[in-house]
Write the structure tokens for this entry.
Amino acid sequence: MGKSVLKICAVLAMLSWLLIDATASFAQTSGGTKTLDNWAGYVISDAAYLSVSASWVVPEVDCSLVAAGQTTQAIAWVGLGGYSDTTIAQTTLEQVGTIQGCNGSIPTYGLFYEFFPAAPQSGQLVYTLSAGDTVSARVTQNFDGTYTLWEQATAKGATSPKWTFTTTGSSPGTSGSDPGNRSAEVIVEQGGYSGTSTRLPMASYGSITFFNVAYAKASTATDEATTIQFYEPLDGNIMSTQRAIPAVLSPTSFIVYQL
């Protein structure tokens, strides 16, 4: 979303394109660590990707320092596309996840999805969430070149989902030169614009742990995985913390935490 077409990278997982439902591995060719002003997490790049998925628990945001009338946001999502390397500039991105933030002192949680560069969409009124809910999200490229975004939420302590969301479409500008699937991401992002050229302040979310991370690719090309850390967000708009750092916990999980 927004800055997502900038150069970014990270570590996710390794799968043959035949193993769409298998879990991922962080054993990749390392692209090192990069610092962005609005993304933190991991990206796999340098191949054509068919799907990416992950699960996480919606974090409880701290709204105690947010002024009346102020909005803060942090967005957790999985996506395909949006990574720019030195040879192919990707300007399209298909993503789905959750928004967590504050409207003044009131915490807000809900569904988020986007076919960038089209406007982001929020399902906070219909697809409601609460801190502690478990969310699973997936982006899949279809045979006709469209993308299906899928997300399911289960309330804390529940055994069956509270809702399931799915939609199919494609990013405007998707073409043979940019089919929208040359990278796969699992990211925490600074929230969208507030109607001006300034992004919203970053919500104080503490940490988000992604698990069951997996992806599938449609080629045997060697992947490159790079860690992305979030530092000094765009325009300095951040609440109470200055950094967001990802750290691998297992072959299929990692945590993004604020410092």
